[in-house]
Every structure is written in structure tokens, then in C-alpha cells.
Amino acid sequence: MLKKITDFIVEKRYFFLIIFILLSGLCLFLSTKVTINDDIMKYLPKSSETKIGKDIMDEEFLEQDTSTLNVMLKDLSKKEKQEAVKKLEKIEGVTSVEYEDTEEYNKKNASLYILTVDDYADSKTATNVYETVKKNFKKVEMNGTIYEENKPILQLWI
After folding, report:
1. Nearest to 112 by CA among 126, 120, 102, 122
2. Phi and psi of 48, rounded to 5°?
3. Which of 93, 79, 88, 103 is nearest to 126 (CA)?
4. CA atoms within 13 A on the CB side of 58
5. I need a surface site. Which of 54, 62, 70, 126 has the fewest CB within 10 A?
């Protein structure tokens, strides 16, 4: 009986390979549709002490609704660095750009710009800022709360 099964698998190996490849492709596609809910408060009952305490804190203290995007640009001249500040400040939704011509913000051939957005990292405003930076700057690297919300999911596997 086992001999028949193994012979069948060996005989139809290309069929199994094609099925495996198709299912892998389907899984890869579907993995991009998975969302992560990291808000534990949604799962707590309204009568929970933690939920009640959180509600009181939300009423008493204004929640900080700012987010940041750290932008590293490479191979810029001194003039281009200042132009980059002006370009970044003009992006709709950016409330401030932090940059100084010091070693803290300039390492080797890279310059760091810290953009602040007065909205949540998963907001349309923050997404617009991320997309605009990605589209308008060459040799750009990013991180920060806005980047974490908007980075391509497939980049995790590369």
C-alpha cells in the first residue's frame, strides 16, 4: 500500500510542485491583506478596571496626536541640504523639520531630517507625507512612527 502511494507521488511530482507553487503564491498575496490590531482596549469589557481607568485618563489628559518621520538623504552638498529642509517644510501636513548642520545630523555622506506631523501615524496626512518624501527624494531612507505604519509589507521578507 505505501509503495503505491510513494509511486503515485513520484509519478505526479510536477503536479504536486505546481500545486505547491500556486498555493505559495496565494499565501504571499493573502499575507498582504492581513491587518494587525494592536489596540488591546478593543478586547476589554466596558466594566474592566483597566478600561475604566483608560477612559478616565483619556478624559483628563489630551492624547498626543503627533507622529514623526526620520528622513536620511545621502550625497547632498551644503546648498542641497538647506534646499532639502525647505522642500520638506513645504510638504502638506509637515508641521516642523528638525535639522542642523552639525555632526549630530550629518554622518559621512548622510543627513538626517526629523519631520513632525500633527496627526496620528496611521492618518491620511501622515501617509501623504510618507508618499511625498518617497516620491520626491532620491537616495532616501526612512524610519519612525509614520514609516512603521506605511512601509511596504514585502520589505519585511527582503
Report:
1. 102
2. -65, 140
3. 93
4. 8
5. 62
- What's the rounded Cα separation, in Å, for the pair 157 and 153? 8
Q: How far apart are the C-alpha atoms of 127 and 133, rounded to whole Å?
A: 10
Position 154 scores a pLDDT of 52
The set of residues, in sequence order, having a beta carbon less than 8 Å from that of 62 and lying 6+ positions away, is: none
pTM: 0.61
3-state helix, strand, coil in the chain (%, to 5): 50, 15, 30
pLDDT computed for residue 46 by the predictor: 87
Residue type, 134: K
Percent of the chain whose predicted confidence (pLDDT) is above 70: 94
Worst-scoring range by mean pLDDT, 38-47, 67-76, 80-89, 111-120? 38-47
Q: For residue 103, which amino acid is it?
A: E
* CA–CA dist 109, 106 (Å, integer): 7
Please report the DSSP string for 38-68 in residue order.
--GGGGS-TT-HHHHHHHHHHHHSPPP--EE
- Separation of alpha carbons 102 and 111, rounded Å: 10
Whole-Å CA distances, 143 to 29, 103, 132: 25, 19, 15
CA 37 distance to own-chain centroid: 14
